[in-house]
Structure formats: structure tokens, C-alpha cells
Amino acid sequence: MTELKSADIHLIQRLIPHRYPFLLVDKVVDIDGYQSAKGIKNVTMNEPHFQGHFPGNPIMPGVTIIEAMAQTAAIMVGTELGLEDKNMQVYFMAIDKCKFRRMVVPGDVLEMKLQTTRGKPGGKVWKFSGVAEVEGEMAAEAEFTAMMEMPKA
Question: Which residue positions are annotated as catalytic (predicted)?
């Protein structure tokens, strides 16, 4: 049995270029190679999207939930492939079978469980499926395809 890896915020920032206010993952745990991982997002009222989405009724936008899932996938792959400080860029190519089931609000801990369905070391195009949950209740699910690219040195 292989030991599962994890990524704290310091490693995350070495793997993906996202920063406040668009860094949407606090840590990634249970990284099993580039096959699966679980991202954690502590949802707080201090996030800028809550000012307008919606005043008096703060709800995390669905698109940011899917973005957090994609960031989790990039961190999983980057951790396994040793891509720290390599300036990896990740771009959405498709989002499929996306459904929202529960509102995510300040105080929630969003857990994103991701699996790789297509992709291999050295490949640019990867496909993932995942669910985002709060306290075991599904908030969102989606499949998405992304291109992972390294800048030329």
C-alpha cells in the first residue's frame, strides 16, 4: 500500500498560480498518485463574492465550487508529478454533467473528492470527475476536461 500524500497552502501556491481572491483550496489530502484526492475549502464570510452573491443571503457561486474542484485536480496532478515551481497553467476545456444539489454558505467546510478518468504523465489533456460535499451532503458534481501546460523555459 502506498502512502497517501497531502498539500498544504504553501505547496499549493508553488503548484498553481492562483492567488487571493481566486485561490479556492486551503489544502488537499488523501492524494493517491494522480488517481484521486480530496480538496478542502473553508468557506468564510470574508470572501469577496459574498458581497454581491447575495446581500443578506450569502451563497457560494456554483462556478466557484467547480473552479475549486478543478484547482484540487491540478494540485493532485502537480503534487504527484513534482511540478512545484514549474509555473504550470491549467485551462478548462469542457465542463459536463454539472449539477448543483445544496447551497454552500459561510461556515461550511467544502470537501471536493476528485478522480482522474483520463490523463497520464507527460500528457496535456486530462479528464476528471468529482463531487463537492458539505458534511457528507452533495453540493455539486461535475466532469471536466482541462489542459495542463508548462511554459517553455
Answer: 53
What's this model's pTM, rounded to 2 decimal places? Answer: 0.96
Q: What angle do CA 137, 22, 66 make, to 5 degrees?
A: 35
- 104-126 CB burial, b ≥16 within 10 A, e <16: beeebebbbbbbbeebeeeeeeb
Residues annotated catalytic, as ranges: 53
Phi/psi region, residue 76 (left: phi>0; alpha: psi -120 to 50; beta: rest), is alpha
Cis ω on the peptide bond leading into residue 54 (within 30° of 0)? yes
Place of cell 443571503: 57
- Answer yes or no: are the C-beta atoms of 22 and 51 closer than 8 Å: no
Write the pLDDT tens digit of every residue in 63-96.
Answer: 999 999 999 999 999 999 999 999 999 999 999 9
CA distances to 21, 41, 89, 130, 147 from 60, in Å: 13, 11, 24, 18, 25
Q: Which alpha helices (DSSP H) does 6-141 contain, by range?
A: 9-15, 62-80
